[in-house]
């Protein structure tokens, strides 16, 4: 296990296999952030109150969506491990259980959010003005309807990615994003519906995506894993426990991480509209720079999950290093482009000069450090999760978020009074802690755990 494998060439995935897996994921992630930017640009024509409302609620939505995404991650890990162990029937059953589990949880979340939308906004962002409050409430209520649809899409996409076919989920994503962008244009510029003009197309597009990927996954019977509809209605607790072993720690980690982000944004919301809007725009531009790294993070689940299922540590270690190298490449290239043309990007937004100036500073802070720290902080942890080392990643992430991102943000905001800039500096401190811990864990070899026996919790 400690043997040097610099000259080792992996056998489970060829370069062509990795290319077929990663390229569609990169396109899909790029589209996701591009559509997010288009949403913000279009909403900006409805005023800064609308931009602020959407950006605040997106943070809340991310908390809930990340919980559902964590369940999908747990499913992807388990399916990939079964494939690696050549247990394809078990993988099909796990896929079906993933579908029913994520759908059930998402329906409950959706109902609760719709009922308590007013209370939720009041607790999190009580100091915002009435116009921003109403925009936030309307956007949250409408988008909550789409959670079950998004959960179904995520589960279907996880099934396809686990078998190395990310092209199909990419095609469905393209369809979803086209519907979303066209709907946004009509809602904002033709019907003048404000935030509702952005929220309603999200519901429609996610609904279409959910239906499309479910039909495709259930008809894909020639694949090594496909969705057996009859299995969806049979509860198999042994498979669910296995998915939840990965999904629960990941869900706690991801959800509380997003809660921490919301808490940080609630700090920024006290600084006024300029700081809120600049934070939202900078998040969009920074997302464009690092979001393709998310594609490598997703690919890491499939690749390392297979290695774990096959019980091959040497293969796993080799592919972690290879995917990390690719991760740095897909971060560095867009970073150079964004920093070189950031003024052009920022000028697209219909906001004040003060907002544009602050946005430029925030982008430099984020992208300047992301090229060094982001892959270690957010790509490498998925390798550990695929190796069933979910408790370690959860503990490190939650501690870092609570102490370094939230508490430090609060300290800098109250002591140095430098607004959003101080909050973003605290984020960099958080990254330093994360990256150093995850890198040490991987190098030590302690992240590698034997494949779980079915039913183990």
Topology:
Blueprint lengths: L14 H30 L3 H37 L3 H28 L1 H8 L5 H15 L2 H16 L3 H25 L5 H24 L9 H4 L4 H33 L3 H38 L2 H28 L1 H6 L5 H34 L3 H26 L4 H25 L13
Write up this protein.
It is a single chain. Helix content is 82%, strand content 0%. The longest helix is centred in the middle third of the chain and has 38 residues, at 273-310. By secondary structure, the chain is an all-alpha fold. Helix 2 packs parallel to helix 5, helix 6 (147-162) runs antiparallel to helix 7 (166-190) and helix 10 runs parallel beside helix 15 (390-415). The protein contains 16 helices and no strands. It is globular and about 60 Å long. The protein has one domain (15-444). The two termini are 26 Å apart.
Outline of the structure:
The chain is an all-alpha fold. The chain has helices at residues 15-44, 48-84, 88-115, 117-124, 130-144, 147-162, 166-190, 196-219, 229-232, 237-269, 273-310, 313-340, 342-347, 353-386, 390-415, 420-444.
Per DSSP, the total helix count is 16
Shape: globular
**Using DSSP, what is the number of strands?**
0
SSE string, helix = H, strand = E? Answer: HHHHHHHHHHHHHHHH
Instruction: Give the N-to-C terminal Cα separation.
Output: 26 Å
Report the radius of gyration as a whole number of Å: 21 Å
Report the structural category.
mainly alpha
Helix content: over 70%
Query: In percent terms, what proportion of residues is strand?
Result: under 5%
Round the mean pLDDT to the nearest integer and report it: 88
The total domain count is: 1
The low-pLDDT segments are: 1-5
**Describe the biggest sheet?**
none
